[in-house]
Amino acid sequence: MIAYSAPGRVNLIGEHTDYNDGFALPIALPQRTSVVFTPADIDTLTVLSDRADESVRIPLDTAPGQISGWGAYVAGVIWALRGNGLPVPGGTMSISSDVPIGSGLSSSAALECAVLGALASASGAQIDRIEQARIGQRAENDYVGAATGLLDQLASLFGEVSTATLIDFRDTAVHPVAFDPDASGVALLLFDSGQRHGHVDGEYAERRASCERAAAELGVASLREVQHLGVEVLDGVSDPVDARRARHVLTENERVLDFVAALAELDFAAAGKLFTASHASMRDDFEITTGHLDLIADSSVAAGALGARMTGGGFGGCVIALVPAELTLKVGDAVRAAVVAAGYGEPEVSRVFAAAGAG
Ligand code: GLA
């Protein structure tokens, strides 16, 4: 029997930069998905989840289109592992999780990474963590059918306690960055709006297509290649919407690096301002926030947060805020009151921190 688990993640900053070869800075969350796997000499994997009434039976030679729903993430991992020529044992697997689904906290990557870790441990396959992330991404892109980047899997695999992971997606380089706001009297608050999202729908793919069109028009393979030229280069993008999308990506990359610099100085006031600027860019240029998320971000800053931003793919999910520790209750109450007064459901407010990665 093998037990393996992988965490959800919060992206501190660097949204929709991953598929543009840019920078992002996620942390692994304390919330995890755990897998218990009992290998057997059979050619199917039967999977039970504490979140589903019925188990799913997956043939090991599964192919895209065969399994849908949550089981597709598991089947996708099997399919991607085998596609890489790696052995996959059959057996039974039971899954439990406290990573909320559809909140932008990467419940899908947590599931992929936990399943992959369990299967690889059972077969004895040595797969380095970057390759594990790619296998998880392939499962999601080509089996589940969501064209997401590599951010979520890398965050789940490389997370460490009190540490954020700076990722440079151009060469998939991963650097640990000390992140312990609590030691400086600052809390990282997570507001789950309760507004659910799904990436398989068209908006994510549309944003990605806009960025790719902008890069193509500028004659480069990715927007990262014009990063050093500054936003003026975007005068060369004819479609104003594509140009705005690309502006978000270029300015967001800049903010990730500025955020890392602010952390090095333990300057959480500066870090907070970068959160707020990132949110504005996602609201105005990338247009992936919602009125509901804007209200959470704005009301937390009005109540004393150093800064706040939506985190994740967008169109729902969570907002994070850096808040002086003595103001956490006040900010939480003020956000709840503002959100309820506007007719939205009450957000769930929690204090989070950087936790361990998959293992
Ligand atoms: C989702 C995707 C990631 C990334 C983020 C936005 O979480 O799965 O690959 O693109 O959105 O930063």
Brief descriptors of the model:
single chain, four-stranded antiparallel sheet, 359 residues, globular, seven-stranded mixed sheet, binds alpha-D-galactopyranose, alpha+beta, Alpha-Beta Plaits, 2 domains, 9 helices, Ribosomal Protein S5, domain 2
Describe this structure in words.
The chain has helices at 71-83, 107-123, 129-144, 151-158, 202-217, 240-264, 268-284, 291-302, 328-341; strands at 2-13, 23-40, 44-49, 56-59, 90-97, 163-168, 173-178, 186-192, 307-311, 318-324, 348-352. The protein is an alpha+beta fold and 359 residues long. It is globular and about 60 Å long. The two termini are 15 Å apart. The model has no long low-confidence stretch (mean pLDDT 96). It binds alpha-D-galactopyranose.
Portion of residues within helices: 25-40%
Q: What is the fold named in CATH at topology level of the largest domain?
A: Ribosomal Protein S5, domain 2
Q: Ends: how far apart?
A: 15 Å
Tell the overall outline.
Answer: globular
Please tell me the overall pLDDT: 96
Q: From the alpha carbons, calculate the radius of gyration and give it in angstroms.
A: 20 Å
Q: What small-molecule ligands were found?
A: alpha-D-galactopyranose
Which consecutive residue ranges, at least 5 long each, have pLDDT under 50? none
How large is the share of residues in beta strands?
Answer: 15-25%
Order of helices and strands: EEEEHEHHHEEEHHHHEEHE
Structural class: alpha+beta
Figure out the total of helices.
9
CATH architecture name of the largest domain: 2-Layer Sandwich
Total E-strand runs: 11
Name the CATH class of the largest domain: Alpha Beta
Tell me the count of domains: 2
Largest sheet: 7 strands, mixed
